[in-house]
């Protein structure tokens, strides 16, 4: 009994038995990056949005457009009052020229190059594209952090489910032993029949709890495999010693400051605000005039038969210069869009302030969850040791006839519950550390490696 009492506290920290090819928390996160469809969608979105930088640069490069067309065209020209002169002919006034082409063949070719020089709306649009790419980079970092949290949550959910099942089976052995002893004692007439009923009821209750726990394990196994593609049988031995405070914890003030400066959601919201301001700039009155350098060459030709016989009209043109465009009237659309964008700026500011308040509250809760949680773990460990001592005393008292069967069964149940409470409390501290890192924008490979070293310490058996 003394040996069992000394071994069980150590085993209380062991959550999953070791398997070959064991996978730890970091490896599970790395596997999820290759398997999780939600993360794959985030990666595709990131890669798609990063093309916005190329689009932004391309907007200020020259555009060259070639047009060509053929068709059937009627053409008629009439000129009167013209002056005619040619070598060998006298000058003649009042000359008329008429041409006509019916269902003639038309050909048109044009090559136009345009280079923006001044375009405030285009400048805002390119800045919005760059801001969109910036948001994609931040969102990609956030997607990695959220994946790490999801992996940890499912990893620990499976851990608790397995530990619950293990402890229930452990309790089942003890309760069935007590039930058999009770039946023997009843046959000898040393205890009343009610003790056998109590023991049998507890046996059946634990059987029902085990069935529910087994179902819960299967569900947790499926959700973990869906996320990572890893079988639960490949999980590493996880140990949760009471030394998570070995990981440095910044002060609450520093944690709040890091959240304000580095939280990805806040950075995305700030970028959205900048984009909303650029949208307003696009619709300001001074942003409407544009200047472009334009160069073009073209050729038009129509030929066929007309009212005066065969005819042909052709024209070649070439031009290079500066083009100024000033919208004079837009029907109120420009001013309406500007007013709309100003209100959207106010909306983005309010949403940013609300998000900041929520994230700071979450940061404070995570920080307190660590500091208070570590003290709670220490208290629960002492409670567990006390419950084990009570169980030993109750077992001895029951064997001597000083404790009832119900007292023994309650002591067994309390010991199991206290052991599971230690595991749950330790996992809560670990999750709060990961959540705090995510809120501070620092949940990355190095953070997981540090946590992983704490979680995967081996128990000397």
From TrEMBL:
<dbReference type="GO" id="GO:0015288">
    <property type="term" value="F:porin activity"/>
</dbReference>
<feature type="signal peptide">
    <location>
        <begin position="1"/>
        <end position="22"/>
    </location>
</feature>
<keyword id="KW-0732">Signal</keyword>
<dbReference type="Pfam" id="PF02321">
    <property type="entry name" value="OEP"/>
</dbReference>
<keyword id="KW-0998">Cell outer membrane</keyword>
<comment type="similarity">
    <text>Belongs to the outer membrane factor (OMF) (TC 1.B.17) family.</text>
</comment>
<dbReference type="GO" id="GO:0009279">
    <property type="term" value="C:cell outer membrane"/>
</dbReference>
<keyword id="KW-0812">Transmembrane</keyword>
<dbReference type="InterPro" id="IPR051906">
    <property type="entry name" value="TolC-like"/>
</dbReference>
<keyword id="KW-0813">Transport</keyword>
<protein>
    <submittedName>
        <fullName>Transporter</fullName>
    </submittedName>
</protein>
<dbReference type="GO" id="GO:0015562">
    <property type="term" value="F:efflux transmembrane transporter activity"/>
</dbReference>
<dbReference type="InterPro" id="IPR003423">
    <property type="entry name" value="OMP_efflux"/>
</dbReference>
<keyword id="KW-1134">Transmembrane beta strand</keyword>
<dbReference type="GO" id="GO:1990281">
    <property type="term" value="C:efflux pump complex"/>
</dbReference>
<keyword id="KW-0472">Membrane</keyword>
């Amino acid at each position: 009994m003394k040996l069992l009492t000394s071994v069980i506290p150590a085993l209380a920290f062991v959550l999953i038995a070791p398997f070959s090819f064991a996978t730890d928390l970091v490896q599970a996160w790395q596997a999820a990056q290759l398997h999780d469809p939600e993360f794959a969608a985030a990666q595709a979105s990131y890669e798609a949005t990063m093309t916005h930088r190329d689009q932004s640069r391309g907007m200020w490069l020259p555009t060259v457009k070639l047009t060509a067309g053929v068709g059937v065209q009627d053409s008629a020209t009439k000129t009167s009052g013209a002056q005619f002169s040619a070598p060998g002919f006298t000058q003649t006034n009042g000359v008329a020229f008429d041409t006509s082409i019916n269902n003639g063949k038309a050909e048109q070719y044009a090559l136009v190059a345009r280079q923006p020089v001044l375009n405030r709306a285009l400048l805002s649009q390119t800045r919005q594209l760059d801001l969109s790419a910036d948001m994609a980079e931040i969102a990609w970092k956030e997607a990695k952090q959220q994946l790490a949290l999801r992996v940890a949550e499912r990893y620990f959910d499976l851990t608790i489910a397995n530990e619950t099942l293990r402890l229930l089976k452990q309790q089942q052995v003890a309760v069935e032993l007590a039930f058999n002893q009770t039946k023997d004692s009843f046959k000898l007439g040393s205890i009343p029949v009610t003790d056998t009923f109590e023991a049998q009821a507890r046996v059946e209750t634990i059987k029902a709890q085990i069935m529910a726990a087994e179902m819960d394990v299967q569900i947790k196994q499926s959700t973990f495999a869906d996320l990572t593609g890893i079988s639960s049988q490949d999980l590493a031995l996880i140990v949760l010693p009471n030394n998570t405070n070995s990981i440095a914890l910044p002060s609450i003030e520093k944690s709040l400051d890091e959240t304000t400066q580095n939280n990805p959601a806040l950075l995305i919201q700030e970028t959205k605000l900048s984009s909303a301001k650029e949208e307003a700039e696009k619709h300001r009155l001074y942003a409407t005039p544009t200047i472009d350098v334009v160069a073009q060459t073209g050729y038009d030709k129509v030929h066929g038969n007309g009212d005066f016989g065969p005819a042909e009209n052709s024209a070649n043109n070439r031009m290079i210069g500066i083009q100024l465009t000033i919208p004079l009237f837009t029907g109120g659309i420009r001013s309406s869009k500007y007013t709309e964008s100003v209100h959207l700026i106010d909306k983005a500011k309010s949403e940013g302030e609300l998000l900041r308040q929520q994230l700071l509250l979450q940061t404070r809760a995570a920080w307190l969850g660590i500091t208070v949680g570590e003290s709670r773990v220490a208290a629960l460990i002492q409670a567990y040791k006390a419950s084990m001592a009570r169980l030993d005393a109750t077992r001895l008292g029951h064997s001597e006839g000083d404790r009832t069967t119900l007292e023994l069964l309650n002591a067994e149940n309390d010991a199991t519950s206290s052991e599971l409470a230690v595991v749950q409390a330790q996992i809560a501290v670990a999750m709060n550390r990961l959540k705090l890192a995510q809120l501070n924008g620092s949940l990355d490979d190095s953070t997981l490696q540090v946590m992983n070293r704490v979680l995967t310490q081996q128990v000397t058996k």
